[in-house]
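Researcher: Predict the fold of Cuticle protein CPCFC domain-containing protein.
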Amino acid sequence: MFKQLFHMLLLIAVALVASSSAREYPPGISPALCPDYPFCDNRLIALHSPVPYTAPGFPANVNPAGCPNYPYCN
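Model: Structure tokens for Cuticle protein CPCFC domain-containing protein follow.
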């Protein structure tokens, strides 16, 4: 009787540990900056992000001021 109870409790403990595995964060999101992912402070992430800000519709290596009619640049 006690052996079966022990095995049942062990099975429950293993299931709880397996289900509470660590979260997987997307690239560029630090667990230190966003512990409640996906509910993050976007301004804080933007300040500490290694990825440079780009204007919408422009690729990362194109300056919007230097090429306002992208993709038709001189």
